[in-house]
Amino acid sequence: MKKIITTKNAPAPIGPYNQAVLTGNTLYTSGQIAINPQTGELVLDSITNETKQVMENMKQVLLAAEMTFENVIKSSIFISDMHNFSEINAVYGTYFNEETAPARETVEVANLPKFVNVEISMIAVK
After folding, report:
1. Could you tell me how far CA 121 lies from the centroid of its own chain?
2. Of the four listed, 45, 54, 98, 126, which is most buried by Cβ atoms within 10 Å?
3. GO molecular function terms here (predicted)?
């Protein structure tokens, strides 16, 4: 059985999907981009601020499912330019304990929704 996870503290879906789905003890999140949930505006002034907004959005989705980044077992990072990897990685790393960090892939793609620079999705387990 699946439970839809939603929070007003992260951007509302812009299509036929939900912020996250919980099935059993496993949470599958949709990709988050750098939309400020209070204003609805994209945060694109720097790759650092953009990544921070993505991670803060993801934090709110995890909290809505009564989880934290410690529950994350897998992350997928999609970026539009691999030259931004080090800045994205630096921000991403501040949200995890290196010793218990999840498995991850980082993939460069041609385009992302709303032509942002980074999108991140996660799988977490209670």
Report:
1. 5
2. 54
3. hydrolase activity
C-beta separation of 8 from 37 below 8 A: yes
Q: Which residues contact 23 (CB under 8 A, 6 or more apart)?
A: 1, 2, 3
Residue among 93, 74, 91, 70 nearest 29 (CA): 74
In terms of phi and psi (left: phi > 0; alpha: psi -120 to 50; beta: otherwise), the region of 99 is: alpha
Alpha helices by DSSP H, listed for the chain, are 47-64, 85-93
Q: Per-residue pLDDT for the chain (126 aa), expressed as one digit of tens each?
A: 999 999 999 999 989 999 999 999 999 999 999 999 999 999 999 999 999 999 999 999 999 999 999 999 999 999 999 999 999 999 999 999 999 999 999 999 999 999 999 999 999 999
Per the CB < 8 A criterion, the answer to whether 64 and 119 are in contact is no
Amino acid, single-letter form, for residue 18: N
The structural domains of the chain, ordered by start, are: 2-125 (3.30.1330.40)
